[in-house]
Amino acid sequence: MTDTKAVRGPDGGDALVAAFNAVGADYLFCSSGSEWAPVWESLARRHRDGEPAPEYLDLTHETVAVGMATGYGLLTRRPQGVLLHAAPGLLQGSMAVHGALLAGVPMVVASSESTTYGDGPGQDPGGQWYRNLSVVGGPHHVAQPFTKWANEAASLHTLPTMVTRAAELAWRAPAGPAYLNIPLEILLEDWDGREAKPVVPPGSTHSSPEEADAVARLIRESHNPVIVTETAGREAGGFEALVAFAEAWNIPVVEPDSAVCGNFPRTHPLHAGSDVGPWIDEADLILLVNCRAPFYPPSRRPAKARVVVIDEVPQRPHVVYQVLFADQYLEGGVVNTLRQLTKRAKDLDGDAVTVRRTAQQRCHAAESNAIASAEAKAATGTAEAGGVDPVLVAATLRRLLDGQDAVVVDETITHSRIVKRHLQQVDPDSYFYVQGGLGQGIAVALGVKLAARERPVVLTIGDGAFTYNPVIPSYDASKTYGLPVLIVVFNNRVYRSMNLNHRRFYPDGAAAQTGEWLGTDLHRLPRLAAFAEPFGMHTETVDTPAGLAPALERALKAVSDGTTAVVDVLVTR
């Protein structure tokens, strides 16, 4: 190959930037790799010449790049560009890409490999590809199991429209990441300037009026219906549409532990908690609204209820095993379907509605009293208890965030039920649970902040999950791009979920007899808040109930002043 020093014209890097610009990507989230020099040169030219381009974020870890794109997409619901480095970068970011797939976030992920290894004409791609970067078959084969669609852009002539196709596939239901392998030689090839056509939002799909009428009839004839939802709130307008639907028909709403976002106001009288168990035996109609895995174990069939599935794509292709027990499907867009069913809430059986409304009021009152009792008990804790009750942490956060239009990103495990129950989110797009493997939470929170700079963003995270995160690259991104968030660590000094499983499977085993619990102890870790100190961030460590609220208040003040704050709370359990 030759390595010419002549001034070069537009090349594949320009084609890729133009394509991402055409599909409406606001950002290119990049964890740098040597293949992206053509993209960097294109961006430099565009900045010099005042031409439009997505904003480029230079990030120092693949999980941070993908996680931020995920957080940004949770709020904007539009595909962004993610650039990783060859197969190693793709593998490093694969957990976060899989998390985006589970969360239903559209994005176009790209990385590159050489196809000529220096033996072809044109620019020399470099020997690193021949020696240790390439994988047999190409990285698009690596990406297939954890993306919605994976392919290779094998020609510069098709590159722009391949990006268009990837973005359109990523955006359409079920939304998720699409992947493109773009060989470095194509990025270096001269480009003739043909650009991709801008991507338009997906069209809407609808169930027929006859299908909606049939489901409305089932609801009208039922005496004890229930709605179960995991991700209705992920749809634009889904939160509001579900509230209107439930209120029109007076149907309780359960958000099971598998719910991944806020779908219904937790304080609403029709909110029926997180336990779907009693309804499996008692309900005569179960309406699964965007609910991928409602029953556990999957074979736990409802005793007498008919099951209606309301979901644009009810059978999730990426779910290995999925049991819905559906008697009827409404497969149009969920928001429109809920609105159509709301319009049909007429000629209801007044006696049946009164009976279930009264029963739900009793249940809601009991749950409200239980929450208040748990919080009162937590507030009486003392320092001698060895820290702060996690219920008090969640309840204090709720009080301090009240009226602030905050967004909470949650990456706790053993405390996730407490966080959901006591934070009591009431607004759309105010709560998201990080999907897939642990270690993405800080990046997802930063991406949410990027999409909602005017809103306070809080990450609740366990100490085990915190240690999985690429903390230094995340703090670097926070400081570099002015993305202040509050990180609250629920620190029980143990991998509690691992320990609980060991105790559950072997209650009388050798570990129980000797106290040798392996794979769980985190007491050896240093102060977790201290990692933020070199970045000039606000840090606090709290180990008493009396110190909790003042520390969180100071941290929120620091965030409002523009710096990330980390509050490491030593919790009692």
Automatic annotation (TrEMBL):
Domain Thiamine pyrophosphate enzyme central: 213-318
The Thiamine pyrophosphate enzyme TPP-binding domain, residue ranges: 415-569
Superkingdom to which the source organism belongs: Bacteria
GO biological process, one term: L-valine biosynthetic process
GO terms assigned for molecular function: acetolactate synthase activity; flavin adenine dinucleotide binding; magnesium ion binding; thiamine pyrophosphate binding
Keywords assigned by UniProt, alphabetized: Thiamine pyrophosphate
Family the entry assigns: Belongs to the TPP enzyme family.
UniProt name for this protein: Thiamine pyrophosphate-binding protein
